[in-house]
Amino acid sequence: MKALLYNMTPEQQVYVDEWNQAHPEDHLETTNDELEADTVDQAQGFDVISVLQVFDINDEEVYRKLASYGIKHIALRSVGYNIINFEYVHKYHLLVTNTPAYSPRAVAENTLTSAMYLLRKWGPILHNEKEDLNFVREANLMSDEIYHQTVGIIGVGRIGSAVAEIFHVLGAKVIGYDLVENPANEAFLEYTDFDTVIKESDILTLHAPLDPSDEGMIGTEQFEAMKDTAFLINAARGPLVDNQALIAALKEKKIAGASLDVMTGEEEIVMKKFTDLSQLPEDYQELVKMPNVVFTPHSAYYTKTSVQNMVKQSMTDAKRVLDGQKPVYPVDE
Ligand code: COI
User: Fold this and answer.
1) Any catalytic annotation for residue 237?
2) Of all atoms in ligand 1, which is nearest to the CA of residue 237?
3) Which tens digit of pLDDT belongs to each residue from 236-251?
4) Count of H helices and E strands in the chain?
5) Which one of 77, 165, 207, 266 is the catalytic residue?
6) pLDDT surpassing 90 at residue 333
7) What confidence tens digit (pLDDT) does each residue in 105-139 have?
8) Counting atoms of ligand 1 from 1, which one is nearest the CA of 81?
9) Residues lining ligand 1, judged by CB closer than 6 Å?
10) pTM to 2 decimals?
C-alpha cells in the first residue's frame, strides 16, 4: 500500500514511522499540508490518501483529480466527516472512511474536565487571582456538587455514551437525546426528547455530528429555555451553536458559562498565535474576555491514545479496502 497522509504533525509521525517499520510491504508518506486544490497533485502515484483537518473540502477539483489519479479511498483520521462533500464523493465514485473509535474516552474525559471547571467556578477564580490579585472567597464562587446535577447529552453515540457512563458513575442524573436510542445506554442515562434535555440540564453537553440541518441547533430559543444556572459544553462541532445567540445569552445571564472546544470560525484561530486581542475575530474577542467561558483549541480529542489510534485505524481500513475487504468504518451521507 502506498498512502499519503495529509495534515501530518510530529506526534502522529511517530505512529506513521511505527507502521512503516511493522509493515515493510507498505509505504506511508506524509505532508503537513491541508488537502485542497493547490495540494491535491501530491496525491499522484499513491493508492490512498488520509486526511485530518477542520477545513471543508468543497472544491470539486480535489475529488475529480483524486479519481483521475486512480485514488478510490479517502481515509479520514477524524471522527467527524462534515469536511467532506458527499455529492462529489458520489460523482467520482470515491469511498470515505473515518475513525470513530480512536478514543471516545478522550473527549468524554475532557467533557468531565470542562464540567468540573465550570461547576467549581475555576474560570472566575483564576480571573480574580490573575487579573486582580484577588484571593477572596466571594459568594458568587460557591458551587455545587456533581451528584446534585442533571447532565444532558445531545447525541448519544460512542462519545456521548462514554460521557453518560462517567457522569453516571459520579452520581449525576444523566439524560440524553438522540434520533436512535441504544438500549445498552439505558444503564447510564434516561433518554428523553430534545426540548426536555435543553430545559432540565444543569450541564448541557453536545456530542452530535454536524449535519447541515443541525446548524444552530443551540440558538436563541434554546438559550431562553435553558436554566440560567446551566453550563454549555461544546466539544462536537462549532456550527451546532449559534455564536451570536451564545454571546447574547452569556451577556444577558441566560446561562452561567460555557466551555468551547470548537466554535464556528475556529479555523481563524486554532493552531495560531496572536500578539493582540484585536487580531482575533470579533466573536472571540468578546468571549475570550468572559471569565465564565473557556476555550480549548479543538483539543478534547488530543491524547496519546487518540493520536496513535487515528493513524492505526485509518491505515487498517486503507489496507482492507485495497485488499478487497469491507472497511470497518465506512461513512456516507
Ligand atoms: C474529530 O476527530 O472529529 C475531531 O474533531 C478531531 C479534529 C482534529 C478533526
Assistant:
1) yes
2) 5
3) 999 999 999 999 999 9
4) 11, 13
5) 266
6) no
7) 999 999 999 999 999 999 999 999 999 999 999 99
8) 3
9) 52, 54, 78-80, 298, 301
10) 0.96
* Torsion 58-59-60-63 (CA) sign: negative
How many domains, in total, are found in the chain? Answer: 2
Return the residue whose CA atom lies nearest to atom 6 of ligand 1: 78
Report the C-alpha gap between 287 and 282 in whole angstroms. Answer: 9
**Boundaries of domain holding 195:** 104-295
Pair 236, 263 in one domain: yes
By most ligand atoms within 8 Å of CB, the mutation choice from 35, 52, 263, 270 for ligand 1 is 52
Q: Assess whether 268 and 233 both reside in one domain.
A: yes
Query: For residue 119, which amino acid is it?
Result: L
3-state secondary structure 182-240: CHHHHHCCEECCHHHHHHHCCEEEECCCCCHHHCCCECHHHHHHCCCCCEEEECCCHHH
What does residue 82 show for φ and ψ, rounded to 5 degrees? Answer: -70, -10
From 301, 306, 311, mutation site for ligand 1 pocket: most ligand atoms within 8 A of C-beta: 301
User: 158: closest CA among 106, 122, 211, 194?
Assistant: 106
pLDDT at 218 over 90: yes
266 a catalytic residue? yes
156 and 263 in a common domain: yes
Alpha-carbon dihedral 270, 272, 275, 279, rounded to 10 degrees: -60
What percent helix, strand, coil does the chain show, rounded to 5? 45, 15, 40
pLDDT in tens, 263-288: 999 999 999 999 999 999 999 999 99
| CATH code, domain carrying 178 | 3.40.50.720
Verify that 43 and 184 share a domain, yes or no. no
Q: How far apart are CA 138 and CA 141, in angstroms?
A: 5
For residues 201 and 142, state if they share a domain: yes
